[in-house]
Design goal:
The chain is α/β, with parallel strands linked by helices. 39% of the residues lie in helices and 19% in strands. Strand 9, helix 6 and strand 10 form a beta-alpha-beta unit. Helix 9 packs across helix 11 and helix 12 crosses helix 13. The termini are far apart.
Length: 472
């Protein structure tokens, strides 16, 4: 069944969809979700939210609005009116959407007539992590005018809560927590929307930042003031937690105020940032591979359709989409490097072990075309061989609980390329699987010599231009 994905209605909604399709990819990002709440069973559905992202146990609800800034001449009154319409009303829509999803997760649709259900299955509500995002347009120029310069982004303060945004002499163009009791709401504006979704352009990187920012702002032991979301993001990239991943690590000194200003400009002008941008280019081939599978799933024209339900297929492709930008860089190098060095008439295999604990094993297989085999015979043989290698991978690596197998034609100049993707759950290992894997390994020499690919990829690779001096 073909899945029709709406493009959004307003220009800002269409732009948000393009950004989210790029960052979260088409199978997990949907614009203009509707609920089937009708009066007397008649009428069209009601819009739930402007865009919804569902990935594993994360649900991201977007509300996108363009509200023109009032011009009464009283900046505090104008700000209060704009905040209520652009942010508070949007947050209200998000809270309502969250309630509906919790109560009726199976009543979400892609069209106003409520005929096409949301194709991805929502997680169990007890395990769902909701992220609430308001996109508030129409404020950048007013910010620049008020602060006489700057990027045009709203200032952030964790001590500003609720109706204090617009009551009792409010501070214009400063935002904090809309309603902590109902859940944290992230507020992005004209300036920071592009920065966030272009820099955190995988679902893993994005929700990791949101989750850690929520915890950071919830800590009331200190006050956080940032001159914009971009400076908060730069602070995030500067720090590493105990697990070696980016986090909002607190300064060692006992401070009551953390003021962040000018960090983003320093960051994007640094050699680390430039080297990262250059190194990331190869990783977008991984995104393109995922989207090729996604397009087949959404259009309903997959080569193999057994089992044919989207839920099963989504679980397999999800492993590829779960990878962060830096991991995608490493995996792209492993796959493209194998393609570059393998002639069209030769077979090649590469096993990529887990980059971090809990990651899957990847089995990359290049399978040459045989002139005496038709397409159907070739694809079936290739899939059978790929499955056999996944089975033997589980035999060789006892910790291989999740194995993702990918196969395509050998050589990097194939005009019409096809791809196979399979998933093997190593937790379901049986005695019969053991015997089959041993047979493939012993009788057919599968993985007799394991070509396992392991490498280290630095997020910010700095090339030392100075040649090392030779020791005399």
């Amino acid at each position: 069944m073909k899945i029709e994905r709406p493009d959004g209605v307003t220009p800002s909604e269409k732009y948000l969809k393009r950004l989210c399709d790029r960052a979260f990819l088409s199978l997990w990002s949907y614009s203009g979700i509707f609920r089937d709440q009708k009066h007397g069973g008649k009428g069209d559905g009601k819009e739930l939210c402007d865009l919804l992202v569902v990935f594993e146990n994360h649900v991201v609800i977007f509300s996108d609005k363009y509200i023109e800034f009032p011009k009464s001449g009283n900046i505090q009154i104008d700000w209060s009116r704009w905040y209520r319409h652009a942010i508070k009303d949007s947050a209200k829509q998000i809270y309502g959407a969250e309630r509906w999803i919790k109560l009726y997760p199976n009543r979400l649709f892609l069209d106003r007539k409520c005929t096409q259900r949301l194709p991805v299955t929502l997680p169990n509500v007890s395990n769902t992590i909701f992220h609430r995002v308001v996109i508030a347009h129409g404020i950048a120029n007013e910010c620049k005018n008020f602060f006489q310069g700057g990027s045009g982004s709203l200032l952030l303060s964790n001590r500003l809560v609720g109706d204090a945004h617009f009551q009792e002499n409010p501070n214009p163009f400063v935002v904090g927590q809309v309603d902590p009791k109902k859940g944290f709401v992230h507020i992005f504006d004209d300036t920071t929307l592009d920065i966030i979704l272009n820099k955190l352009d995988t679902v893993t990187d994005f929700v990791d930042y949101l989750s850690k920012k929520e915890r950071f702002f919830a800590n009331n032991r200190f006050e956080v003031v940032a001159s914009g979301e971009e400076d908060l993001l730069a602070y995030f990239f500067r720090k590493l937690g105990k697990d070696g991943k980016h986090d909002f690590v607190l300064p060692s000194e006992n401070l009551s105020l953390i003021s962040l200003e000018g960090l983003w400009e320093d960051f994007i002008q640094s050699p680390q940032y430039r080297s990262q941008q250059d190194a990331d280019k190869i990783s977008f081939s991984w995104d393109a591979l995922i989207e090729k599978f996604n397009r087949s799933i959404l259009s309903g024209n997959q080569y193999y359709k057994n089992p044919s339900d989207i839920e099963f297929q989504e679980k397999t492709i999800r492993f590829l989409a779960r990878e962060s930008r830096t991991k995608r860089r490493l995996l792209s190098k492993a796959l493209l490097g194998l393609l570059d060095k393998t002639p069209e008439k030769e077979f090649a295999l590469r096993v990529v072990g887990p980059i971090e604990e809990g990651d899957p094993y990847y089995v990359f297989m290049l399978f040459p075309r045989y002139e005496d085999l038709g397409t159907e015979e070739y694809r079936k043989l290739r899939l059978d061989v790929l499955y056999s290698y996944c089975l033997v991978t589980r035999l060789k690596f006892k910790d291989a609980m999740d194995i993702v197998g990918f196969a395509t034609e050998s050589g990097n100049k194939i005009q019409f390329r096809s791809e196979d993707l399979i998933y093997y759950d190593g937790r379901n290992w049986t005695d019969e699987d053991q015997k089959n894997a041993e047979y493939f390994s012993n009788e057919h020499d599968l993985l007799k010599e394991v070509n396992e690919f392991r490498a280290k990829e630095y997020e910010f690779p700095i090339r030392n231009s100075r040649k090392r001096r030779r020791r005399k």
